[in-house]
Amino acid sequence: MAELKFLPTVYVRPGGLDDYLQDISTFLNQYSWIYNFQVTKFFTQKVWKQLPRKWFECLTRASTGELNELPQGFFKESWPEDLQTFVVRCTQLSLPKEQADAVRLQRVEIPAEMKRGMTPKKLHEVAHMASLVAATCRQYECDVVIDVGSGLGYLGQVLSCLYRLRVVGLESDASRSRSSRQRARRMPRSELLSCVTLELKADDLDGTAGELERLLIADSDRSEDEGCSCNHEHADKVTSCQHSQRGVRKRKAASNARGRKACMIGLHCCGDLTPSMLKTFCKVTEICAFVCVSCCYHRLETAADGLFNNFPMSERVAATSQKRADRECFSQDGESATGVSSERQGWGVESAASSPRELSLADGVGIFGLRLAAQETRARWRRQTTEEHDFHTRTVAYRALLEVYAETEGCALEKKHRKITSKAAFSTFENYVEAVCSRVKSSRTSDVMTLQDMKLQLYTFHDRYHQFFPYIEIITVSLWK
Fold first, then answer.
1. Eight-class DSSP state of 96
2. Cβ-contact 265, 241 below 8 angstroms
């Protein structure tokens, strides 16, 4: 029953896991209209039309406090019965959540010289992640940290300098590897930190595992310098020449005897990087601990049939999806009911369903459904003020109006800068329009469309769709369930 301890109480019983997966599948299929759309297409796809009118009427009358309590299971007896059922079912299917151990997440104070180059957001992440990784290494007696997607090495540098941990950074971008090494040289205890160019590949686990094992062996004897004596540069590649390979092979037996223990970590492991790390963790015996913060689920790669290559990783979940696919795709006489074989039914971008709103676990929750896994906590929503709700409405609505303009005019919008607008630009629609028109290039502003035409069009769309702004926060609160 150990595998059931994280399920809602009602499912902690024999067969409970399979029942839970089936119930989740049914629930997500029934309410897919809440999540299965691109946020910026809120107006172009007329998402608000999917919201039952009675839901809208009662929820727009709810106070900020009542709206904030909805994800906690709050509802009124005067609300429509189907809305009450939705709230109750959400609560029943929500996984239990516990506050993380405060001791393991204590923020470490980072010296001023190490903060250089970090944004406030990055500083917050590194300060807390470093504390957690250090505590994990103590718990599992790890003597080396493998930092996947190490970038410029901010996290690794904090771990080596403040916690005296040996850190090996893995970065697929060679230019970032070089920049990381240059930055590390300016830090104390730089001898504990190295960075190599290596990309984890889920489709070549044997090759990846071999590279990591050789890397750990090389790192363990780095100070003895038993490797290559030639003048080749080895810092940037795990395997640079035949000389270094002979040195690695020579040291392998000694490394195994020492029984190295590694902790694999990753901060902002985008898309398929997290599945690749998990598969590597299971493959390489020297890696005995794993700390990962995933992100960008919408970047998971898909195969030609539209299904994700590395999701779900759970064989149990995949099997549950397959069973449902077999039932839905074939009639009792064995003939295909949809014209699509169930052999590759699973999770993906497209499905055999006739419309995106009919996706299920068997068909795939789709790219936009995966954002449910990245929703912030209900506790965060609970603290939202009226002003914060209004600001979120504006950020979604204004971006969606820009999408309306692009689709209506049949033009492409190209960013002149990394970000289209700053947070301050969403204070008013006037500020947003001015910011967008100065930082975005339309493919049509060079011919018949002028910049002034673009502004006038945006204001026209604002007047047309303003009446639907209140729907945004109501549908959003449903996502927080």
1. P
2. no
Closest by CA to 187, choosing from 144, 216, 145, 153, is: 153
Largest CA distance in the chain: 80
Which are the contacts of 419, defined by CB distance < 8 A and separation ≥ 6? 439
Measured between alpha carbons, how far is 314 from 140 in angstroms, rounded to an integer?
A: 25
- Percent helix / strand / coil, the chain, rounded to 5: 55, 10, 35
Structure tokens at 384: 């939202």
Distances from the Cα of 321 to the Cαs of 4, 358, 444, 447, in angstroms? 19, 15, 46, 51
Residues in the chain, total:
481
How far apart CA 246 and CA 224 sit, in angstroms, is 15
Q: Considering Cα of 124, then 127, then 128, then 130, what sign does the dihedral take?
A: positive
- At residue 437 the predicted structure's pLDDT band, cuts being 50, 70 and 90, is confident
Task: State the chain's mean pLDDT as an integer.
Answer: 79
> Which of these, 88, 30, 84, 89, lies nearest to 58 by C-alpha position?
84
205-241 residue pLDDT tens:
788 888 887 777 776 655 444 344 343 444 444 444 4
CA distance 446 to 411: 11
Q: Structure tokens of 255?
A: 């490394």
DSSP labels, 89-156 = HHHHHSPP-----TTTTPPPPPPHHHHTT--HHHHHHHHHHHHHHHHHHHHHT-SEEEEET-TT-HHH
Structure tokens, 90: 């959400």
